[in-house]
Amino acid sequence: MAESLMIAILLGLYEMITAGEAHHGYHTAHAGGVAAILCIRNSPLDLLAAVRGGLPLAWNGIVRVRTALSSSILTHDLLIRSSVLLERADVMLANSRDELSNLRILRYEARALNRELVTWQDAQVDHSKHTAIGCVNHGETNLVPATGLWPGRIDTYSDLYVATVWNTIRAVQLLLVDLVLNLSKAVNDNQDDAREQLDAHRLLQDIVSSIPYHLAEDLHGFLRDVDEKLNVMQPGRDVGGLLLMHPIYVVSKLLFVPPLMREYIRGCLAWIGESMGIGQASLFAKVSISMLNLVFRLRP
Predict the structure, then answer these.
(1) Does residue 30 register a pLDDT over 50?
(2) What backbone phi and psi angles, to 5 degrees, belong to 216?
(3) CA separation (Å) from 12 to 16, 158, 264, 270?
(4) What pTM was computed for the model?
């Protein structure tokens, strides 16, 4: 069973890497195979719940990750609860007859969950957090920067797994912030959303600051090239782009994100597709503004 599970996972990754417009969803068949082996429904939420519950024996020995992050059970719990709330919000917002009082309750729950995620971040030990190792100076403010050159700091992490967990949490928080802002528009009760807007600004900066770490072959060499105005990033390991593309795709979809940043993110996705050969990233880069209201919710 363990071998079958590993084969299904690897085939799914292969389909994501080779995805094209004619066969962009083939990886879902292998995701269904993983779900069947694990005896769960074919959804990321059920997979996360299975991992959190220590289910199944087939998973044991396949992947063992040592990480500096603390409270992994709490992390899974927060992600599961966020997914449930976001799915419930989709249903409620699609129902124009829902009472305003229900929308206010939903907004309260989204805000509370966002604060829990902030508390999780604050509780992490220092060596599991990002470290700023350089910065990119501001250039032409109306031009889309090249990949890795968004103005501001550049961060490093202890490893790609830790960086991916942080960006996944950040992407979920941004979805919650987006929900709060949309609910405030729907309720129209003049409540102050300043805290959520500040959260969004910080989260966006954190995600963008992690892009060079994921993509550059030599981060310190890239920083030296930036200082010398040699603005070409040499691609690193493909796994960096694979782990980065879903969180930044979430950013590219959110309409409260400044248009220039959304365009920059789409450029990064296109770069991952071209420079690292990951087909699904190229597809993500081609999603038009008119399609941004399609439900994604971190599903691959």
Answers:
(1) no
(2) -80, 140
(3) 6, 27, 28, 21
(4) 0.80
